Structure formats: C-alpha cells, structure tokens
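S.,

Sequence below, as promised.
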Amino acid sequence: MREAALPLLAASLTRDPGAVAAVTFAGRLPWLLFSLVSGAVVDRVDRRRVMWQVDTGRALVVTALAAAVLLDATSIPLLVLFAFVLGTGETLFDNAAQALMPSVVSRERLEEANSRLFAIQISSQEFVGPPVGSFLFGVVAVSAPFFVDAGSFFAAAALVLAMKGIYRAPRRATEEQPRLGTEIAQGLRWLWHHRLLRTLAIMLGVWNLLTTASAAVFVLFATADLHVSKAGYGLLFSAGAVGSIVGTVLATRISRRLGPGTALLTAVVVSGVLDLVVASTSNAYLVGVCGALGSLVGIVWNVITVSLRQAIIPDELLGRVNSVYRFLGWGMMPVGAALGGAIATAFGLRATYWVGGVVLLAMAVVTFRIVNNKTIAQARAAGPVT
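The prediction came back faster than expected:
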C-alpha cells in the first residue's frame, strides 16, 4: 500500500519531477550505502532474529509517518527521511531473508521455493496493496494506507518470530571473529572472481537503474500524460502484479524449456522492447499490458538468478556475497531515481523509456557470450566453492 500511497503523497505536495523522484532516491540510497555492511552483519548473527527485529522497527517508523500525515505535518524533506530509514531496514531484512532460504529448502528445490515465495509476496505487495493503498488514500483518508502498512509490519515480525530454530551462518569452532571490513572484502573478492555472477550483478544494476529512472516519475507520467485517476494509477500497479504472478507460475517452466541462460537474455530483450512501446503510446491500457509483461519477465529473471546464487554461494559467505551482488544491482536504483528526475525535467517524462529500451537491447547483445545455458550449467555443477 505504501508503494502507491507514498508517491501520491509526494505528488500532492509538489508537481516538481525532481522533488517527487527524490523520495524514491532516498528509499533506494541505502542499498548503495549500507548493503555491504548489512551482508556482513547477516553472516554474523541469527538471520531470523535480524528479520523480526527489523520489521518491528519498520512498523514503528511507518506508524510515525502515518501520525505525521494525520496531523498534516508532512513535507518532501520529511518523506525523504522516512523513505531513507525504511530503505535502510530493507537492506538488512532482504539480505537476511535470501540468506536464510537454503536453511529451510534443499538446493534442488530452490527455484520452486522461490517461485512460490515470489507468488505470495507479489500477490500482497503488488496485486492487493497498490489498488487498496490508492483507494484508501483517495477515498478513506490520506493517513489510512500508512496505518494499515504499519500493522502489516507488526504482523510480519510476529510471523518470523514464530519460526523455530537457529539460522546462523556456520563457523569453525576455533575461528576468530574477523574485522567487519575483512569480512566485506571476502564477499567482494568471491563475487568479483566469479565471472558469471559478476556479469549478472552488473546487468541487474543497469536494468534497475533504467527501471527506477522511469518509476521515479511514473506517477507524473500516469496522471499527466496518460490522464489516469488516482484509482487508475493503482490499477496500473495491479497490471504489473498480474504479470508477476503469472511469472511465478511460469518461471521454472520457462527456465527448463529455454534453458536458464536463454531465459535471462530473453527477459532483458523483452523488457527493452516494452520500454520502447510505452515511450511511443498514450494508451493507458497498452501501458498496463506492457507493465504486466515487463513484470513477468522480471520475475523470471529473479527466480533464476536468486536460486542460482543460493545454490552456488557457500552458506558462510551467502549474506556477504549476496550483499555485494545487490550493492551492484540495487545500488544503482538511487542513481536511476536521480537520473530519472533529471531526464524527465530536461527532455520530458517519456525520455526515460526511450533511453531504457535502447540500453537494454544493447546490453543483451554485449553479454550473450557470458550469460548462456552452458556457463550456468557449469556453475551449478561446480556447486558452492569457498
């Protein structure tokens, strides 16, 4: 709900694309600043404990945001601050969640498990949340989606706390705790020497930069260029969610039919073509269809790459290597948000899609010799190598 309500709240305070994009920028900036530290922390402590404590903290933060909205005490700087704090918690929670997965699922079933997890996550986070958030924002009360979102964080913390067991990364009994910087460097070296994962991380970074550039000003594109209502804006989110859910069902089938390498490159090409279509149309329904297809191929990418990392990265390094991967992949999001605001201000709201389409197609051409079925099969056969 917050994903739809926060941009609407920002857009109600200003029509400046740069200011609206600043809120998205702040929410993604922690991945650039803290993801490496978060990964090292996740490899040191019980990952389940990290998850429930972070969600409790995020619940309190969103409650404070809801109260500020209720008291009409919001401003763009305040939204930027809240987005930054929530994004910082996200770096810890998401790193812990992905590192915890191989502890509860066998490596042979990781793709299936991740597909199911994404299905549940997307159903609530994208399919249900945005339209409900938009409805509550526009019809019930501006503060309503934030209060409900805070409650969802409390519920999530309780669910994780109810899990049984200890989920700490294994360490040798005689091993001394190294310095945090040393542990981060170990994760950096491991990923940098793995050509396939290094390439996938850089590809994800470029992709996320371009996607976030468009997403940062999408609320203005939807309401100004496509002339959709606040409820219609939420439905456009839902269109993407439908594609994501279909993607969770089809991801493993597509991976097996095409092979994981071909499926990954196909996802990049399709995403690039869809950006060019959105850039050239004013039809909101067509934009919705493109959003659905784009989300579908994005989920296929996520299921394959997340499962691949969980299968080939040693458990004792999983948090740190994952954090480096996401530093490269997600750290480009704040850069994309800032870039999106600058491009939209200088060249118009559609320019971000033109740039995105061209760059994604070029990226697929450049990387096909590294990302293919053969290299992925070889990496999986080698298994976790310290």
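The two ends are 41 Å apart (CA to CA).

Coffee later?
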